[in-house]
From TrEMBL:
PROSITE patterns for this protein: CBS (PS51371)
Pfam families cross-referenced by the UniProt entry: CBS, HTH_11
Name the record gives this protein: CBS domain-containing protein
SMART domains, per database record: CBS
Length: 210
């Protein structure tokens, strides 16, 4: 059986607050009781929830315990991504540092002709202070991680897949890209960023049953 995102949320809410009335579930989701009725019937009919009259809903643990895993596999990066912060290849390391502070981010994406060409992180920039480079004249391309090494996701990648990449490759953020073909060649347009903060926010929301 395929559940939708709202049904997973309802299961989570019931699990953490049982017994809970339909009205209370609706309040937590900022929806009306009527809107939730079909979801609650599906969950009750499939045996995942038990409804006791005048008491409320209970969660029925049927070995169906990996709710978070199922939810993260279903949720798309496009639904939780943040706005990307980009600079253009050729801009200076100094400008990159200023952007990092102004935009309050840890990683900046570098674009060339509008398409992704590099990633520059806090540590990449910090490293430049150890050499003798002139920060105002040295282009950011010198210190960025180049395209062929960039780990990225697309908007319809699952959040689960994105979290695995962040952990496996030990990076703080992934550019969210859209593949574009120009003259038979593939380019990556930057449409967002997915960061450790996105993950933390998501878990806070799950914990609070939002
Ligand atoms: P920090 O500099 O704060 O440690 P990261 O751990 O994200 O931040 O970056 C570590 C290194 O990995 C840096 O050299 C950075 O350029 C590179 N990097 C960051 N994000 C990515 C990514 N999505 N794909 C490939 N390399 C990345």
């Amino acid at each position: 059986m395929e559940l939708n995102a709202r049904q997973y949320k309802i299961l989570d809410i019931v699990k953490n607050n049982q017994p809970i009335t339909g009205e209370e579930i609706a309040q937590k989701l900022n929806l009306t009781r009527a809107t939730l009725r079909p979801d609650l019937s599906i969950l009750t009919m499939s045996g995942l929830l038990e409804a006791r009259p005048r008491v409320g809903y209970f969660y029925v643990d049927k070995g169906f315990t990996n709710i978070t895993g199922d939810y993260l596999k279903k949720l798309k990066v496009g639904e939780v991504k943040s706005l990307p912060i980009v600079i253009t290849e050729g801009q200076s390391i100094y400008e990159a540092i200023v952007t990092l502070f102004l935009e309050d981010v840890g990683t900046i994406y570098v674009v060339k002709d509008g398409f992704l060409s590099g990633v520059v992180s806090r540590k990449d920039l910090l490293k430049t202070t150890m050499g003798k480079a002139n920060l105002e004249t040295t282009p950011v391309d010198v210190v960025m991680t180049r395209l062929s090494h960039i780990i990225f996701v697309e908007e319809d990648s699952s959040v689960y897949e994105a979290i695995k990449k962040i952990i496996n490759y030990q990076v703080d953020s992934l550019p969210v890209v859209k593949k574009v073909i120009v003259d038979g060649k593939e380019y990556l347009e930057v449409v967002g960023r997915f960061t450790k903060t996105n993950i933390a926010k998501l878990f806070l929301e799950l914990a609070e049953g939002k």
